[in-house]
Write a structure and sequence with these properties.
This protein is 39% helix and 18% strand. With 425 residues, the chain is an alpha+beta fold. The radius of gyration is 23 Å and the shape is globular.
Amino acid sequence: MIAKIAHGSKIYGALLYNHQKVLQNTGKILSLNNMLESPDGTYTTGQLLSSFLPYLAANRKTEKTAIHISINPDPNDLVSDEEFITIAKEYIERLGYGDQPFVIFKHHDIDRTHIHIVSTSVDKNGIKIPDSFEKKRSMEICRDIEKKYKLTPANEKQITDENTIFSPVDHTKGNIKSQLATVVRYLPKYYNFLNLGGYNALLSLFNISVESVKKEYNGEIKEGLIYFALDKYGEKVSNPFKASLFGKHAGLSALRSHFEKSKEGSGDVKAKTVQMIAQALNLTFDEKDFKDYLTQHGINTIMRRNEQGRLYGITFVDHNTRNVFNGSHLGKQFSANVFHELFSKTEAQENLKIEHLLPKNPSLKPTTSLIEDLHPIFQLIMNTDEIFSDWGLLESLLLGGMTGDPDEQLFEFNMKKKRKNRKPN
């Protein structure tokens, strides 16, 4: 059994994410603790939030008031709902949150049935609950629960792998080869990309770059790939590493097959990415707002500029669908040239509306696109000031201020625009 703990600033996002699973019939509420209960057992996100409001109102100075825990038994363990509730309550009691209001959600949208617990880290008096050595205590609790309920034990290698795969490379820590390996060996299993440029854009989120090389060998031209570690400025800071060091999945032949396979299903998911980008363009007023909006909705934007500052390439990494698209792949209206002109004309952009970019399919309506269960070890791949400890991207998206209503989003962005246009007397 593996438990993952994340602390965030807004509990509404965590409740919204989990409750959305309930509404989609891929999850359900197993139990509530110290919360207002409805007569028929059905709830809105607002109703769930109401039980936390007195605690949040009493908060004195804690910034990260939300705690979001995922408990994941081994897929081979058959755990009943009653056992899940018992396990969750014992876990959270021993962690120090037993008297808090909390909700236990069960998710069955993927093969690995698991539960999430959403609570607050401040007590009824507004004082933060101590969390010293929280990860160490969590692991000890998990080991005890495995023995008590005869669950498959998670060995140390599993736990280590869960916490290292897909972590961005930090060249200052050394052991660069191992850091590269934990990303490039597995990334194609989770993401689709159509060419080497898209793969490079995805790798850049993890401070990695890849290049194609050609060399003559016994009269034949051999092609291959080499990988580099990057610093925070995108500059190479390591010696090259041959793809063969990381296994066949990191090599050119395997990646070319992956490109072709990715093309087969790209048309079906492209419209969803187009929808979200068009929505972002309609609701934002400059490049920063545009990128921030997409980041909050699970899409990273990678822009490439020349020495003169001209935008010549743009790539979108959509974590909702796990697809990588160059702007031109989504249509001429999303090419780098269009975005260069758009972001170079601030005055014109203030009043720009691009409803004509929205897909013609009437079934595609404006959405807040909640991110699905990403591989839970994405860390530090957002350029934001606030990075969460365990789930990185997932928790940043879910707890970092996402609203649940497109009209509310439009209101918020219109208010931003008014504040920008308001000049001091």
